[in-house]
């Protein structure tokens, strides 16, 4: 059994100004990506993959639900950590995920 991890504070409750700024920034980036031609599914894959890399439980929960709402299959969501080896991801999706990985400076894993 693993030792219990200390619960992380909810940013929206502890520092609401920071939460609001992060929300505005994330929305602006996503909106611009969609405006530039990124598909909604690609956008959600990026958000979920970055959440996986960051290890943020709140973000993982949020973006997992949003990915399903964007009609990304459960199988694809299950295989997202191994996207490089999965035939389920198109070349474009693989390229988008590679860029997301490179752009995420806090990534702890590949």
Briefly say what this structure is.
With 110 residues, the protein is an all-alpha fold.
Protein model, in words:
By secondary structure, the protein is mainly alpha-helical. It has a domain at 40-103: AhpD-like, CATH 1.20.1290. Helices cover 65% and strands 0% of the residues. The chain contains six helices and no strands. It has helices spanning 11-14, 16-35, 40-54, 57-69, 74-79, 91-103. Helix 3 runs antiparallel to helix 4 (57-69) and helix 3 packs across helix 6 (91-103). The mean pLDDT is 87.
Secondary structure layout:
Elements: H1 11-14, H2 16-35, H3 40-54, H4 57-69, H5 74-79, H6 91-103
Helix pairs in contact: 3-4, 3-6
What are the defining features of this structure?
110 residues; mainly alpha; AhpD-like; 6 helices; 65% helix; 0% strand
Task: Please give the share of residues in helix.
Answer: 55-70%
Number of strands: 0
CATH structural fold name of the domain at 40-103: AhpD-like
Biggest sheet record: none
CATH class of the domain at 40-103: Mainly Alpha
Number of helices: 6
The CATH superfamily of the domain at 40-103 bears the name AhpD-like
| Shape call | globular
- Class from secondary-structure proportions: mainly alpha
Low-confidence stretches: none
Q: How far apart are the termini?
A: 26 Å
The radius of gyration computed from the alpha-carbon positions, rounded to a whole number of angstroms, is 15 Å
The secondary-structure element order is HHHHHH
Measured by DSSP, the beta-strand proportion falls in under 5%
Question: Would you tell me the overall average pLDDT?
Answer: 87
Query: What is the level-2 CATH architecture name of the domain at 40-103?
Result: Up-down Bundle
């Amino acid at each position: 059994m693993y030792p219990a991890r200390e619960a992380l504070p909810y940013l929206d409750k502890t520092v609401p100004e920071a939460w609001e700024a992060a929300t505005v920034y994330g929305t602006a980036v996503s909106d611009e990506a969609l405006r530039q031609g990124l598909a909604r599914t690609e956008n959600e894959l990026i958000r979920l993959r970055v959440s996986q890399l960051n290890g943020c439980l709140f973000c993982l929960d949020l973006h997992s639900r949003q990915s399903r709402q964007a009609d990304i299959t459960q199988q694809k969501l299950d295989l997202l950590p191994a996207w490089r080896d999965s035939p389920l991801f198109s070349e474009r999706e693989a390229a988008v995920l590679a860029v997301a990985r490179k752009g995420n400076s806090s990534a702890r894993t590949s």
